[in-house]
Amino acid sequence: MIGPAPEELVSLVTTDIAAITRGRSVAARDLEAAMDRGVGWVPANLALTPFDEIASPNPFGSAGDLRLIPDPAAKVRVTAIPDMSPLHFYHSDITSLDGRPWEGCVRSMLKAAVADLEAETGLRVVAAFEQEFQILGADWPAAPSFSLMAQRRADPFGPLLVAALREAGADPETFLPEYGRDQFEIVCGPAAALAAADRAVTIREVTRELAAQFGWRATFAPKTDPDGVGNGVHIHLSLADRDGRPVTFDPARPGRLSERAGAFAAGIVRHLPALTAITAPSVLSYMRLQPHHWAAAWTTLGEKDREATLRICPTSERPGHDPSRAFNMEFRAADATASPHLALALLIRAGLEGLRASLPQPPITRGDPADLTAADRAAQGIQRLPGSLHDALAALDADPVVKGWLSPTFLDCYLAMKRKEIEIVAGLDGHALCGRYAAVY
Ligand code: GLU
Ligand code: MG
């Protein structure tokens, strides 16, 4: 090769309200200066739909300038992907030119929610994102769900993915072939809320890039086929005190949830219809959130039950094993069209609201709500989650508490962007809708 060697690039990235990771890059040798001053960013980028058309009008228009400032603690550098330059990026915060957090920065919104929870209650959230995805374009022979055969067809994708994610600091825990066609799941270890949300993004980016090296597309879209299985993002949550001691477990109480964890859960369940507009925020999300799909369809707290929107997870029952550290709740009504930072920020806000009001723990639903009569569901306070993005946005608009956690400008932009997204995909049939989202996510 003639000429200078290629220079490694470092990208300063933000993952926005469309859950798309965007940014600008500098040469690695210029990183030190960029760590301090960041790179430029544009407010109206927040109004970009997943399909690149921008919502117009939006609160920002052509005016204004921002900075993307890298978080030194959120470095990702992966060299394990063959034939690619290192995948090197920093999760970054968006600030105004004077360095203050920008009101449209979802990462800063998560930091603020974490800080408020800790200041008011002394509690911290420990979280882990469990993510499902499907491989498109692999042309594999069919293989049974969960089978070793299904996993080995993909080799050496699994070993490379685990190596790349470990190098990326994402602490991969389990890689498995899932129930759906060419579907896999990757689970990472628990971490403080901000690190957990960063990891969710890192996992998506690394997985997609590695799959592309095999000539496939890895998609985290909530559905790839109207008749197929959904790809969920399950957000595991537990509470710890300031010293990191777990405080979610209390074997004497219903579902073994401590009083504080019960109040936290109650805040989430109370605001579920509005929260889905943030955690399941695409038109396609609602093809997944259907009863009988293990994907969450009702405002319920369940114990070891995969139809529940908030599921109390099992722990090891072996003698001599302390269940308190691993004990957690799983929020199942999320998918990869949601910003992990914003979704987690609002789950924490909802939990904090429950703690503030000392809400009683919701009853634990037994059995599938779809099998109850409407009267029984009403008696137990079980509502259907919104059935479409349109209805979810209406539920958000109708919940003054949830709206109160968002700045008016941010909310305006969010609603404008989501309404534009609805307009862009209006009229597509189920298959075309899946295709549109699979191409982006
Ligand atoms: N694929 C299901 C979903 O859409 C989840 C299956 C599971 O429990 O892992 O969320
Ligand atoms: Mg799964």
Describe what you observe in this structure.
This protein is an alpha+beta fold. The chain has 2 domains: 9-49 and 59-104, Ubiquitin-like (UB roll) (Roll); 109-411 and 427-438, Glutamine synthetase/guanido kinase, catalytic domain (Creatine Kinase, Chain A, domain 2), CATH 3.30.590.10. It contains 14 helices and 15 strands. It has helices at 31-37, 106-121, 148-153, 157-167, 193-213, 259-270, 272-279, 285-288, 340-356, 374-379, 389-397, 400-403, 408-425, 430-438, and strands at residues 9-15, 21-27, 39-41, 66-78, 87-95, 123-136, 172-177, 183-188, 191-192, 217-219, 233-241, 301-303, 310-312, 329-334, 364-365. Strands 6, 7, 8, 9, 10, 11, 12, 13, 14 and 15 form a 10-stranded mixed β-sheet that branches. It has a 5-stranded mixed β-sheet with strand order 2-1-5-4-3, with helices on both faces. Strand 7 and strand 8 (183-188) form a beta hairpin. The longest helix has 21 residues, at 193-213. It binds glutamic acid and magnesium ion.
Q: What labels would you give this structure?
A:
34% helix, 15 strands, alpha+beta, Creatine Kinase, Chain A, domain 2, binds glutamic acid, globular, binds magnesium ion, Ubiquitin-like (UB roll), 10-stranded mixed β-sheet, 5-stranded mixed β-sheet, 441 residues
- Contiguous low-pLDDT stretches (5 residues minimum) are none
Total beta strand runs: 15
- Architecture of the largest domain, CATH level 2? 2-Layer Sandwich
Count of discrete structural domains: 2
CATH topology of the largest domain: Creatine Kinase, Chain A, domain 2
| Percent helix range | 25-40%
Strand content: 15-25%
Query: What's the CATH C level of the largest domain?
Result: Alpha Beta
Secondary-structure class:
alpha+beta
Report the span from N to C terminus.
36 Å
Q: Cα-atom Rg, whole angstroms?
A: 21 Å
Instruction: Spell out the CATH superfamily of the largest domain.
Output: Glutamine synthetase/guanido kinase, catalytic domain
Mean pLDDT: 96
